[in-house]
């Protein structure tokens, strides 16, 4: 599976790791992804999602069903 959030579509970013002497080495900044199961009351079943912490906060605020409607619509 890819390292992408299924809710927010966050992907890894690339940049430079800077030492004290300002030497640049390539670095990959990965999003904080978590595997989580959510209960959908209307369907009476669990779904598994790979989401970032920002996606979890959105689900806590708006609810899983409204988030899933917005994903399927757009």
Automatic annotation (TrEMBL):
A Pfam family it matches: Ribosomal_L28
GO MF term set: structural constituent of ribosome
Protein name: Large ribosomal subunit protein bL28
Coiled coil: none
Source organism (scientific name): Buchnera aphidicola
Keyword Ribonucleoprotein: yes
Alphabetized UniProt keyword annotations: Ribonucleoprotein, Ribosomal protein
Any one of the GO BP annotations: translation
Family stated for the protein in its record: Belongs to the bacterial ribosomal protein bL28 family.
Statement: the UniProt record of this protein carries the keyword Metal-binding: no
Domain of life: Bacteria
